[in-house]
Amino acid sequence: MSPTIDRGSLPLSRTDRLYINGAWVEPSSDAVFDVVDPTTEEAFFSVPAAQAADMDRAVSAAREAFDSGPWPRMTPRERAEYVRALGKGLRERADEAARLWPRESGVVYSAGVGAVSYVPTLYDRYADLADTFEFESPADLSVGGSDTGVLLREPVGVVGAILAWNDPLLMIGMKVAPALIAGCTVVLKAAPDAPGTAYLMTEIADSVGLPPGVLNVVTAGREVSEALVTNPAVDKITFTGSTATGRRIAALCGGRIARYTLELGGKSAAVIFDDFDIAEAARTLAGRSCFLSGQVCSSLTRIVVSQSRHDELLEAVAAEMAAVTVGDPFAPETQLGPLVAERQRDRVLGYIEKGKGEGATLAFGGKRPSHLSRGWFVEPTVFGNVDNGSAIAQEEIFGPVLSVIPARDEDDAIRIANDTIYGLNASVFTNDRDRALSAARTLRSGTVGQNDQHGDVGVAFGGFKQSGVGREGGEEGLRNYLETKLVVLRGHGSGD
């Protein structure tokens, strides 16, 4: 067994403050959120719990910066220099971020390193769009005559960006980078379970000299977060999290016709066609289920396979799950770390009990690991003979729990895959590329991959149905932070 990797010291210097209007400011109260390491069950730092007065102050700073400050009046190329600097700063502190993530959310350090190293490229890609995206273009007017039209794509305004706790560093890149390139100002609301990477990015933002009020960062609970959503000075909300919370945000935004982008839950299907190797499918799916302890919205948690191959696949997945090493995310041999919190562990264990009660076959896992006396761990778990109408097949568990669902044939497998309120991700396991593309066209999902859990948050990521509204990544993500304005100019010599 190799020595456990050093967790490192806390890489943050201003965790006693909020970041508002370009300065680290004292909170309005002494209330705090303790951040608990899910492996040790011990708090290792705390941050201020923002109150309504703090949120109002942050929104006011963002509003003033948008209405009267230089940021929206800069050219996209000028803003791009700041965004590139954010990416550069993150590269320089990537290892600090990679060591912090396991201590907040439970990701295995070795897996987190690779994921963290990707995030700076998001800032680079959005900075590149400053040169290639058409913020202004001619419009072909339908009314004819000598008048000419210009389409302007202008910043939507003040953005409230609300993060989930599972992968906040990536979410910041997906939300803040396009908002800044567009010319928006931002109030970033971090999750109480995992505010550390938001603080790290704030330190980077402070060091690159963003104008005051362009980025404001607070950590808040539900009530104060709703004050952000309902504040009339906020033009747009972007949220990543549960579908239940997304419904609430959509309703609140609808009351005042505020813009919103929602990246929500998933119950994604892997459809295994009969030409694909069982062992390879089992190895891929079991391995993917371990990333971030299954706390991934796009995780392929429903495995749909023909009835004739069900038992063989279930046995293969169970064998792969049994070989997974569960433990300290900083230990080199660990493949599956803890869940984020005790409540999340209890939620996952509760769904496992539901699965047993619904008559599914528990092929492996289903309990806390016997060799770990502390930490919010759950064994990797797989059920077979799962009814697609059951709770474990229809509801997002957000843990390392897979369901193998038998289908009559390939058409039935596609039907089962689409029989869900969600539509975030899917995959088709087949060696035939044309067959995979044909199946992808029938799957109601924002992303469909072949033979693995795919996706590209640098292009377009989001869901059909109740998996969300809008897309994040690339030009699709940038458009979410822009309003389109048509300007009609009188033709030459047309008079007043």
Short description:
The protein is of the alpha/beta class and 496 residues long.
**Radius of gyration, in angstroms, nearest whole number:** 24 Å
Helix content: 25-40%
Major beta-sheet overview: 7 strands, mixed
The largest beta-sheet arranges its strands as 14-15-16-13-12-17-18
CATH topology of the largest domain: Aldehyde Dehydrogenase, Chain A, domain 1
| CATH architecture descriptor text of the largest domain | 3-Layer(aba) Sandwich
Number of domains: 2
Mean pLDDT: 96
What this model shows, in words?
- The structure is a single chain.
- By secondary structure, the chain is α/β, with parallel strands linked by helices.
- The chain folds into two domains: 247 residues, Aldehyde Dehydrogenase, Chain A, domain 1 (3-Layer(aba) Sandwich), CATH 3.40.605; 183 residues, Aldehyde Dehydrogenase, Chain A, domain 2 (3-Layer(aba) Sandwich), CATH 3.40.309.10.
- The chain is 39% helix and 21% strand.
- Strands 14-15-16-13-12-17-18 form a seven-stranded mixed sheet, sandwiched between helices. A six-stranded mixed sheet has the order 9-8-7-10-11-19, sandwiched between helices.
- Helix 9 links the parallel strand 12 and strand 13.
- The longest helix is centred in the first third of the chain and has 24 residues.
- The protein starts with 17 loop residues before the first strand and ends in a 7-residue tail after the last strand.
- The mean pLDDT is 96.
